[in-house]
Amino acid sequence: MTTIAVTTWSLEQTAPTDLLPAAAPDGDVRVVRSEEPSPEFSRFLYASVGGDLRWTDRLSWSYARWIEHLERPGVETWVAYDRGTPAGYVEMEAQDDAIVEILYFGLLPAFRGRRIGGHLLSYGTARAWDLADRWAGLTPTKRVWLHTCSKDGEHAMDNYRRRGFKLFDTKVEEEPEVTAPGPWPGAFPV
């Protein structure tokens, strides 16, 4: 099996004032919380956003595993819609010590380059900062963090930094090289 070197960068915000919001894109773009846990919809978002980026870690999850994850207190999915069509999402999870991790963030390939990503990341990060307002028993957020890697979109790191995230760790590891899983052959522009 062939391997590739993958660089992973971890970034954080340590105060709500760190967030530097992007302007809202033109047109009818809305960000809505997916309040009803739906493994089908969450798997669709995961596979559609990450299919060309080699996101594979959740593809083997069972329906029960998706439900278990989505029903955890402090797990939220926020979806950007462009004229009613899902364009991307941000998924976050409350962790110990008043920390919130942005687990997944991205846009479906057809919606990249339309200035939706900065807006969605801004909106999602603001929701990470006020997560405790929606979940009884959670401590107010003291830190929001995420990671991105060299396999992610070419503008990912710039977007995170423009939104006020600061780098706190870098790792390089060898990973098995995997083929982009889809969602189906020929779905992505060349």
From TrEMBL:
UniProt keywords, alphabetically: Transferase
Protein name: Acetyltransferase
Pfam family for this entry, one: Acetyltransf_1
GO MF entries: acyltransferase activity, transferring groups other than amino-acyl groups
Record InterPro entries: Acyl_CoA_acyltransferase (IPR016181), GNAT_dom (IPR000182)
Gene3D superfamilies, A to Z: 3.40.630.30
Domain of life: Bacteria
Residues of the N-acetyltransferase domain: 30-181
Organism listed in the record: Streptomyces azureus
UniProt keyword Manganese, yes or no: no
